Amino acid sequence: MKHRSMTWLALMFVPLSVLAAERPMLTVTEAMEIKAPPAEVWKIVKSFDGIAAWIPLVEKCALVEGANGKPGAVRAAALRIGMLLHEELVAYREDDMTFSYALLPSAFPLDDYVATTSVRPNHDASGSIMIWTSTFRRKNFSANPPEAESDAGLIKALSGIYLESMGVVKNMAEKNP
Length: 177
Prior knowledge:
Elements: H1 2-22, E1 26-34, H2 38-45, E2 58-65, E3 74-79, E4 84-93, E5 98-103, E6 110-121, E7 128-138, H3 151-175
Antiparallel strand pairs: 1-7, 2-3, 3-4, 4-5, 5-6, 6-7
């Protein structure tokens, strides 16, 4: 009897794992050239809890665990759309001007979201290139999700957020060279 119960229990979870496998890992990468030294651009973006200054979607942000620049830190970001997100700093390299973070479980329509933000010298070292890349899966298991929750819709939304935010960084850095 116990064996039969375990078999039924295992079968109940097969469809979820099959559906999860049908949600491919997606990637969004955006880059923007900025006419300012990398160190100046890095000063703007490096504070893990400072994103409200340069990401227009974020109304307020504060650390709720840990410290800036220390992996394991968790920030709470209140979005202008009325949602609260928690993100964990998973890697931080001051000397490489790079940090990575993961979205903790939330109502946001993404699963397995991990993003990296970095600042590099541009091709002739006359300025910077800011790069923001992420990988994720859509949360909606449906074969035909609403457009905003589809693969294409999520890629478009994140790309727009990244470009708009990097535009703010560009304006800030180029005004204060």
